[in-house]
Amino acid sequence: MRPLHLVGSFARASLQKDLAYRANFWISLLHSVINLGVGIFSLQILFHQTETIRGWNQAQALSLLGVYLIISALRGLFIGPSLDALAGIGQEIWSGNFDFSLLKPVPVQFLVSIRFWNFYALLDLLFGMGVLAFAIHQANHIIVINLLLFLPALISAVVILYSLLLAFTALTFWNPGFLFTWVFDSLFQLARYPVTIYPAWLRMILTWVVPVGVMTTIPVQTLHGKIPAGMLGWIILVAGSLLTASSWFFHCAVKRYSSASS
């Protein structure tokens, strides 16, 4: 129960901080509405010209946008704020304050992954769930088994997201002055569209090198019953393998850290 207690304590502290600056709620709401509007408007432009794009109809593409917003929101809720506090310019690795994290009687990876929360990201989560629900209503062919299979696919996608962010954060130990997560952000933007619409060389990168494409495409294919045989098991295996590899890589990177007191 101690890990859950720590998560609750960190979440409460972050919530108190967010409530101290209530004007940020309206700023975050405006940002979320603009982000949602741009996504929907982009799809409207695309499907105004054609009924399908590489086999994806409008309801399926809207489902993908909903999944993208949900995954982005979960990243913004706790994964992003916590890891950015470690690897951003002027943050712990850069300043040497990572010493204090290492001294705490808590596994360092667990600590740096759940310390800071941004509850305004719940706005994006609600919008994403709303878009996904509307897309499911529009599709009219979603069956219960697909909904049940969608959940492990979505969880696997979040695990892949965390693993990739952890690995990119670990690279900062070699070069604290370079924001490696910004590189990931640029690639992650491509996940808002089906991976099948990209050229073969880019599709290869988004599937096998930095698999951000599969994080949204495969859950949506599962939801609509269009997933190839064995693909769900593949994404679960990839998620487990990436989590193991990124955790090992992170602990190797920590050994390179030069203490501020050394």
Defining key terms:
single chain, mainly alpha, two-stranded antiparallel ribbon, 2 strands
Give the SSE layout:
Layout: H1 2-19, H2 23-49, E1 52-53, E2 56-57, H3 58-87, H4 92-95, H5 98-103, H6 108-114, H7 121-139, H8 144-170, H9 180-188, H10 200-209, H11 212-223, H12 231-254
Antiparallel strand pairs: 1-2
| Spans of at least 5 consecutive residues with low confidence | none
Number of helices: 12
Strand content: under 5%
Distance between the termini: 35 Å
Number of strands: 2
Q: Using only CA atoms, what is the Rg?
A: 19 Å
Mean pLDDT: 88
- Category by helix and strand content: mainly alpha
Give the strand line-up of the largest sheet. 1-2
Shape label? globular
How is the main sheet built? 2 strands, antiparallel
What is the string of helix and strand elements? HHEEHHHHHHHHHH
Oligomer designation: single chain
Level of helix content?
Answer: over 70%
